[in-house]
Structures are given as C-alpha cells and as structure tokens.
Automatic annotation (TrEMBL):
<protein>
    <submittedName>
        <fullName>Exodeoxyribonuclease III</fullName>
        <ecNumber>3.1.11.2</ecNumber>
    </submittedName>
</protein>
<keyword id="KW-0464">Manganese</keyword>
<dbReference type="InterPro" id="IPR004808">
    <property type="entry name" value="AP_endonuc_1"/>
</dbReference>
<dbReference type="InterPro" id="IPR036691">
    <property type="entry name" value="Endo/exonu/phosph_ase_sf"/>
</dbReference>
<keyword id="KW-0460">Magnesium</keyword>
<dbReference type="Pfam" id="PF03372">
    <property type="entry name" value="Exo_endo_phos"/>
</dbReference>
<feature type="binding site">
    <location>
        <position position="8"/>
    </location>
    <ligand>
        <name>Mg(2+)</name>
    </ligand>
</feature>
<keyword id="KW-0479">Metal-binding</keyword>
<dbReference type="GO" id="GO:0046872">
    <property type="term" value="F:metal ion binding"/>
</dbReference>
<dbReference type="InterPro" id="IPR005135">
    <property type="entry name" value="Endo/exonuclease/phosphatase"/>
</dbReference>
<feature type="binding site">
    <location>
        <position position="156"/>
    </location>
    <ligand>
        <name>Mg(2+)</name>
    </ligand>
</feature>
<feature type="active site">
    <location>
        <position position="112"/>
    </location>
</feature>
<dbReference type="InterPro" id="IPR037493">
    <property type="entry name" value="ExoIII-like"/>
</dbReference>
<feature type="site" description="Interaction with DNA substrate">
    <location>
        <position position="261"/>
    </location>
</feature>
<feature type="active site" description="Proton acceptor">
    <location>
        <position position="261"/>
    </location>
</feature>
<comment type="similarity">
    <text>Belongs to the DNA repair enzymes AP/ExoA family.</text>
</comment>
<feature type="site" description="Transition state stabilizer">
    <location>
        <position position="158"/>
    </location>
</feature>
Length: 270
C-alpha cells in the first residue's frame, strides 16, 4: 500500500503553531505533499524542517518579490531515488510551485498552481503557467510510461473543475478558479487523448458534492460546508485504477483547523 496526502498548509510556520505537527505525528501516510509553505527551510524550526521519521525536500520561492510566498515541499518515509524541481520554464523556475520525487515505480509531485484574479496580471500569470505546464504533464506521463513508471501529481490546482466541486458555483462563474477557460484546461489535463490523467478522488466518488478541501476563513463557510474542491490527486490511469480509498481530513470544528485547506489522502494498492 502507498498512502499519499496532499495539503496546502497556508504558511508552514503558522500551521506548525496551530496543529500541523501533531497531525503529522499521527498520520500513517507514506508521502506528504505540502503547498504554500511560505518559508525558506532555515526559517523553520528543526521539528518542522526535519520531522523525525521523514525525508524532507523543499522548493521555496526564490524569485525577486516572491520570497515568503508559495513554496512546495515533500515528506517521504523512504529516501527518494531522485528529486527534481521546476518544469523547465524559465519564468517559473524560482517560483516555488513544483517539485517531484521518484519512488519505486512511481513519480510523485507537489504542485501549487497560481491563484488568479480576473482582469489582473495574476490571472495572466496563471494562464501562462497553465499553458506551459500542460505540455510538461504530457511529457512526464510519456517519459514515465517508457520507464515503466506511474505518475501522481498532487496539490492545490486552484481550479474547481465541475459544479459538484464548488458549493456556490452559480455566483462564481466569472471568478478565477471557476472560469470556463480554466475548467476547459482541466478537461484537457484529464482527456485520455491529451494530458491523460485521472482525477482520483472524483473517480472514487463520482456522484458526491465535493468532497470540498478549501473553505474561506470569512463568515461561516466552514461551518456551512460552503467550500471548494481544488486540491487534487491527478494520476496516470494505471495508478488511478489501483486507488482503494480517498478521504478529505476535514477538521472536526473551525477552531481545530490549522489551515484553510484540509489534507486530501488517497491509499493506492501497489
């Protein structure tokens, strides 16, 4: 079995003070993918930086004006066979948004796709990222297949794909994260003739609303489960077919949250 968990920690230093470390100590995951770490490794406490029992890899944002933002990381029980950062596009080389490791038979990646805002440079950046990332995903899948490997890309994709992935979808049709062109891009990622990946949680829960993985801190979004499903496990078909169960580890109550996202965990039979 391989259990993989993905979670946007919304700042690892803050999460560590709110409950992330007890959660990590209790998890039985084999791999944990983190997004929005927002810190250089040396800025973390020793307990957060190198927790006992884990091999850790960090890819912080290093670009001018981006430090202290974004940042991805991966924790693995087994030492990775190889580590790669970025996806070969100069604009995003130091953005702290993509990291992948090779484990026996599978490449696992942690992705933090940019959030956008309609009518701003942030949205244009998000669109450039998507345009350059899809060819890389296709290439990664082909390269892994040639090596007899599977691929799993986990992370905060910042797009709700279907109406079932967003509680208040009617009022968000013109907002970044649920724009028609963003959803169409995810269609391509999941098209067997294009990207060729499978949305693992949706495949296991085809008729469920959600399960949501992000709730705004504003109002009573969490209490009312007015959420978004934007944290995905996207896998090559061979690995997706071996997914046994999926769970969004939603906190029991609002005060017990240590991020505005919840960990998304999937167990794969290898």
């Amino acid at each position: 079995m391989l259990k993989v968990t993905s979670v946007n920690v919304n700042g690892l230093r803050a999460a560590a003070k709110k409950g992330y470390l007890p959660w990590l100590a209790a998890t039985d995951a084999d791999v944990v993918c983190l997004q929005e770490v927002r810190a250089e490794p040396e800025q973390l406490t020793a307990e957060s930086r190198h927790p006992e029992g884990w091999h850790t890899v960090y890819e912080p944002a290093r670009a001018e004006g981006a430090k202290g933002r974004a940042g991805v990381a991966m924790l693995t029980r087994r030492e990775p066979d190889a580590v790669r950062t970025g996806f070969g596009v100069a604009e995003f080389a130091d953005s702290g948004r993509y990291l992948e490791v090779d484990l026996p038979g599978v490449t696992v990646a942690s992705l933090y796709l940019p959030a956008g805002q309609v009518g701003t440079e942030r949205q244009e950046q998000k669109e450039r990222f998507m345009a350059s990332f899809l060819p890389y995903l296709t290439e990664l899948r082909a390269r892994a297949a040639a090596d007899g490997r599977e691929v799993l890309v986990c992370g905060d994709w910042n797009i709700a794909h279907r109406e079932a992935d967003l509680k208040n979808w009617r009022n968000n049709r013109k907002n970044s994260g649920f724009l028609p062109e963003e959803r169409a891009w995810l269609d391509r990622v999941l098209d067997p003739a294009d990207g060729g990946y499978v949305d693992v949680v949706r495949a296991l829960h085809p008729d469920q609303e959600g399960p949501y993985s992000w709730w705004s801190y504003r109002g009573r979004a969490f209490d009312n489960d007015t959420g978004w499903r934007i944290d995905y496990h996207l896998a090559t078909p061979g690995l997706a077919a071996r997914a046994l169960k999926a769970e969004v580890e939603r906190a029991p109550s609002h005060p017990e949250r240590w991020s505005d996202h919840a960990p998304v965990s999937v167990v794969y039979g290898l």
